Amino acid sequence: MKDQTSTLRQTDDDALELARKLQHTSPYAALAVIDPQTQFPFASRILLCTDMDGCPAVLVSALATHTAALREDGRASLLVGEPGKGDPLAYARMTIQCRAKAVDRDGIDHKRLRKRFLARHPKAALYIDFTDFCFFRLMPEWASLNGGFGRAYRIEGRDLLIHSPANALIADHADEIERYVYEKFPHIFDNIAAASGVSRKTANSAWRVAGVDCEGLDIAEGELFIRYNWEALVTSLDATYSNIAKIASVTTKT
What is the distance between the alpha carbons of residues 32 and 207, in angstroms, rounded to a whole number? Predict the structure, then answer.
């Protein structure tokens, strides 16, 4: 029998960058769980955010089938990546196998995730504080990345996470960092959009900060999310400010 692993490419830096980009820029995903009533796989669409360490997180209702399933059996899979025009299988996507863990509503993790989730999904403010809603962190075990035809990779779960001693520090100063961006460098959104190949003609004042962490900055306009990675993993607050100033100083063509 042919070894199935022979269809996989060696995981390189480009594959890891694509995998992290898909995880950070997907506003929603397909979530697959094991239905405790039927023992069959159950898939649903959920809104998605990432925590400070890069771990995917979801906000779910106690009334939903997938919530009961996650409480019964924490094994789950996420499918991220959306098709565009033409053949949908020509576009990058990734399946992440995870272990789900409920977040205590009274803990610091809930407060942090609430802010990060609302930054990505402002309309969730209508229901995020309902008592029957809660967060789950979906810790990656491993992932299957398909970057398009003939580009399949296996990604270890730890490679989807952000391993910086400053994760908690940056989380504590996230509000301060966002104010710094808005007040000092409002043009940074156009710079990041241009660096990501988005025409400045389509950029507008509706851009917002959708998250900051030790690996980069997320911005959003409507349902369009862009991830800008720092040149290197930051381990201090000063390094974060330096990276912001650096991209803000770049002159882009109109």
Answer: 31
Q: By C-alpha distance, which of 23, 53, 49 is closest to 167?
A: 53
**247 closest CA partner among 169, 186, 176:** 186
Residues 163 and 156: beta-carbon distance below 8 Å: no
Q: What are residue 152's phi and psi, to 5 degrees?
A: -110, 140
Packing angle of the helix pair 237-248, 188-195 (nearest 10 deg): 80
Tell me the C-alpha distance between 178 and 188, whole Å.
Answer: 12
Predicted model pTM? 0.90
Are 119 and 208 in contact by the 8 Å Cβ rule? The answer is yes
Tokens of 236: 């201090």
E-strand spans in 93-148?
A: 93-102, 133-146
CB 84 within 8 A of CB 39: no
- pLDDT tens per residue across span 158-175: 999 999 999 999 999 999
d(C-alpha 188, C-alpha 20), whole Å: 22
Work out the percent of the chain whose per-residue pLDDT is above 70.
93
Structure token pair of residue 120: 């990505």
Query: Where do we find the tokens 């100063």?
Result: 173
Which DSSP string corresponds to 166-229? THHHHHHTHHHHHHHHHHH-TTHHHHHHHHTT--TTT--TT-EEEEE-SSEEEEEETTEEEEEE
Measured CA to CA, the distance from residue 149 to residue 139 in angstroms comes to 28
5 burial class (0-12, 13-18, 19+ CB within 10 angstroms)?
Answer: exposed
